[in-house]
Amino acid sequence: MTQAEAIAWLKTHLHVSRETLDTLETFVEFLKREAESQNLISASTLDHIWSRHIVDSAQLLLFTDASARQNDWLDLGSGAGFPGLVIALLTNYNVTLVESRARRIDYLQRAVEMLDLTHRVRVAGVTLERLETAPYSVISARAFAPLPKLFDLAARFATNNTLWLLPKGRNAQAEWEGAQAQWGGNFRIMDSVTDQEAGILVGTLSGKRKARAIFETQGQEK
Fold first, then answer.
1. In CATH, which superfamily holds the domain spanning 57-221?
2. Cα separation, 83 vs 57, whole angstroms
3. Domain segments of the chain: what residues?
4. pLDDT tens by residue, 94-133
5. Which terminus of the chain has fewer Cβ atoms in its 10 Å neighbourhood, N or C?
6. Which residues of 52-69 are buried (b: 16+ CB within 10 A; e: fewer)?
């Protein structure tokens, strides 16, 4: 997907305005400058930011409910701002970006100010373990942690109605199958528009299975 194709996709599928596309362009140029002094994204993706990072982040909006009343979005391990900053630029969500690395925190704070998002985007410069507990309507995580650990750390921020949007690459199916021994939920695996072999876990989490239930299940399998 070229930059032109990525922009066309954003216009067609998400109805992104010319003004917002200009703001995304400003963000991309900012990211490229910053990437010269710190490893924000893989060097191999620098020439493909629009497809590998912008559209890859924006496609998560295809699975959200625009009519939902709650609009608090928690983005785990935000790094260079994907998907959190892109979501904030394309929507009215109040977004919390969780990032614990000092240089990334500084970069994100400057990006938020430059993009005039300080009224809707908060940079939580702490580890997830230290973030205050609060319910969020959407939780996203892009290359944050293996699924069981991710749920262990982040389940306290979710309700039964919280929508989880988890790009998991080519291991999406295997990760969810492995996590089901410990966690219950209703997830489906959706195809990524930027990688035909990659999957996005989309769904809700019902909670951690009791140790006894896990033991009984393992016993039946034997």
1. Vaccinia Virus protein VP39 (3.40.50.150)
2. 4
3. 57-221
4. 999 999 999 999 999 999 999 999 999 999 999 999 999 9
5. C
6. bbbbbbbbbbeebeeeee
